[in-house]
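Entry 12.
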Amino acid sequence: MHPFTKLYFWLFLGVSTTGFAQPRTDSFLKNLLATNQHPVFKKVMQHPDDYRLQIIYTKIDRDKDNKPSFTNYCFRVDSTEYFNPASTVKLPLALLSLEKLNNLRNLKLTKFTAMQFDSSYSGQTKEWTDKTAQSGYPSIAHLIRKAFLVSENDPYSRMYEFVGQGEINRSLHAKGYLDTRITHRFVRMTAEENRHTNAVRFIDESGKLIYSQPAAYNQDPFDFSRTARLGKGYYVKDSLVREPFNFTERNKFPLESFQQVLQSVMFPTSVPARKRFNLTPDDYRFLHQYLSQLPGETNYPKYDASQYYDTYVKFFFMDSLHHQLPKGVRVFNKVGWAYGFLTDASYVVDFANKVEYMLTATLYTNSDGILNDDKYDYESIGHPFLYQLGQTIYQYELTRKRTHTPNLKAFVMPYETRQTDSRPLVKDVDN
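Predicted 3D structure (tokens):
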């Protein structure tokens, strides 16, 4: 059997055997969540099916040698129930980009090397410079910064073009993330255009070519046998189409896979070897820094800290009144929001109180059932719920007794200090 055929045989088998799976709910987490009496939180918890709510709380305990162990508690977790992953897929794309660089085994290529994107097929665009980068050029490192700090969209599309659609999906499936698929950029393109990816080149400081990657085309098939349709209508420009929106061929990233990918970044030896990415110690330090660094601490890009406040992409701590994290807390996470879905996977560290845990959740907030109308319930339902969820778990963790106090010094990062200069602030990015 051809390797690709074998891969998709097992992918099909994995999908077919999970098609009848029941959502997993653990009584411990259900009872813990029931202690929160906030009106918005109770409303969602009383109708979790309507909100397509899924939650994974990961309790972390250390032994006497500081080795962590992980216990997952779930609420309505079901890999067969579709949610739109939105920007959460930027996390695996960042890891695959670093992994591809490492696999090239070219000492002149690093995540900081300048790169340029050509236009090689219809719908594609060039990107030869980047004014927000200190070097003036795109690089894998700078794309990751922008994708993590405020969740910019263009960096994701560029990493998609560097890795290539076929390689993205083959790599994720080979690592065991079988029910995950990445089919498109975050720009409007046809399915055929998304199968084509740009020619890319890396250059040195003098502009001399170091490495050239030709344009690519993905010939591998996708399994779209499980349909995903949501809502009662959607807009195409100014016209309302009165039928469910079809997500069947869109990106898919189940919540369990999302949690596992983040865990593989924060605690690589805690997941099976095949689920890890080929990253260097410096890659891990870089990822840890920019998963947790705040926009206002960052010099390149120089984001407007009033617009991109500390908790802008920290949903479990995004209080409508206070936009700052509790003193001593850092959140290593990735979020996504689109089509009424809000999703976050976080590793939370409270250095002051010696607390650590993971929390991953998604919910759907679209009471009118119409998509693409920009009328979602993010502010009235989504963000308040996720904040209350985050507080419920955080407050529990503050009081939870541990046999061994964790040593968290491995996650103390060398964050930047914002410099004062005349460069304009970066505002209103597409995310």
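Annotation: Residues 3-411 form a domain with the Beta-lactamase fold (CATH 3.40.710.10). The longest strand covers residues 329-338.
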